[in-house]
Amino acid sequence: MITTLLIGAGFGVGLWLLWLGVFPPRPGLRDQLDRLNTTPVSPPILTSGSEGWELRASRPFIPLLVALGLPSRRLRDDLTVCDRGIEQHLARKATLAVGGLALPIILDIALKLAGVELGWQVPAVAGLVLAVVGFVFPDYEVSQEARRRRSTFRRALGAYLNLIRVLLAGGAGVDGALSDAAGIGDGWAFQQLRQALLTARLTRTTPWNTLGRLGAELGVHQLTELAASVSLAGTEGARVRAGLAAKAAALRTRELTDAEGDAQAATERMSLPVVLLFGGFLVFIGYPALAQVLSGL
Predict the structure, then answer these.
(1) How many CB atoms lie within 10 A of CB 173?
(2) In a domain, 110, yes or no
(3) Last residue of one domain, picked from the residues 99, 123, 147
(4) H-type helices in 170-240, by residue range?
(5) Which of 45, 78, 89, 244 is the most buried (most CB within 10 A)?
(6) Residue 46 and residue 223: Cα distance in Å, rounded?
(7) Angle at the Cα of 45 (from 50 to 198), degrees rounded to 5?
(8) What range defines the domain where residue 101 resides?
(9) Single residue among 93, 114, 147 that ends a domain in this structure
């Protein structure tokens, strides 16, 4: 029964994927009208690369994965933060899935050549499990990396706010304070800030506009709030030094809270191996006595 179900499920999935490859789903009328009526958007500030052998090897699978609606909107934002292209990510998913599916089959062939028979059920089940794990793992990896990058950017943004506040207190203008503060720091976060300000100069737009776009692309709403505050200072002459100081303090408080939460989570994870080790020790001590009692009955 299990063998029949596995064969039927694999045959059905194969036919479904073949149908999607030959006859991809058409976009709805509403999507097509929205595409015609949308105004052209500015190119993104964050850039991503799409090169590598995985992309070249898995290129036939990319249209099929795109037709399935992958990746999701949230994952697209995470890919943008991680400087990864959508095609590159889909190619990695396809490569790991195919590799996980083929690895048990290759091992089974090697064992058969060595004279060991496992049956076809073991490599089939192991291949399906490894294929699913390989297909899902890149999403988890990208999500974790995007989370770390956003946290790093928020820490750098707190220092950036303090630098802007000091420069404004020294008599610098808004544009000069934004540019000079971004030129002081190092690291990925300050590189993105400098890139946004350079984009503003090249496109002849206001720096707070590009900073707001960068905050939207990164998913860091604190940068969007900074852009809104600075725009008031740049257009209406509002005093924003106190507001910048408050935002910097709020960022430091949030990062401290996140650090404490991560430390507590790490402590809880460390207790699990100790519990498992203690359980194994109890089994090691109690099994001989229990076996002796059961053999005497």
Answers:
(1) 13
(2) yes
(3) 147
(4) 174-184, 188-203, 207-218, 221-236
(5) 89
(6) 15
(7) 125
(8) 12-24+46-147
(9) 147
pLDDT tens, residue order, the chain (297 aa)? 566 766 777 777 778 777 766 766 666 667 666 666 655 555 566 655 555 667 777 777 788 887 777 888 889 889 988 888 888 899 899 999 999 988 988 988 888 888 887 777 788 888 889 999 999 999 999 999 999 999 899 889 988 988 888 888 888 888 888 889 899 888 889 999 999 999 999 888 888 889 999 998 888 888 888 888 888 765 554 567 777 778 778 888 887 888 888 888 888 888 888 888 888 888 888 878 777 887 776
Q: Are 229 and 246 in contact (CB under 8 A)?
A: no
Say if residue 161 is in the same domain as residue 196: yes
Q: Which two tokens stand for residue 71?
A: 């990746």
19 and 114 both lie in a single domain: yes
55: its two tokens: 């992309």
Please answer whether residues 73 and 217 qualify as being in contact, where contact means their C-beta atoms are separated by less than 8 angstroms: no
Q: Coil, strand or helix: which one is 49?
A: strand
Q: Which residue, chain included where needed, has tokens 């694999």?
A: 10
Q: Does 140 map to a domain?
A: yes
**Number of domains within the chain:** 2
Q: Which two tokens stand for residue 18?
A: 């073949």
Place of tokens 């509002």: 238
The answer as to whether 89 is a domain residue is yes
Which amino acid type is present at position 295? S
Q: Please report, in angstroms and rounded to a whole number, the separation of the first and last CA atoms in the chain.
A: 40
Asked if residue 57 and residue 79 are part of one domain, the reply reads yes
- H or E stretch at 107: helix 86-113
Report the run of H or E that residue 74 belongs to, with start and end.
helix 73-81
Q: Is residue 190 part of a domain?
A: yes
Under a CB-based contact definition with an 8 Å cutoff, are residues 186 and 223 in contact? no
In DSSP terms, 84 is beta-bridged to 49
Q: Are residues 119 and 107 in the same domain?
A: yes
Copy the structure tokens of residue 161.
Answer: 């706010």
C-alpha angle 172-175-178 in degrees, rounded to nearest 5: 85
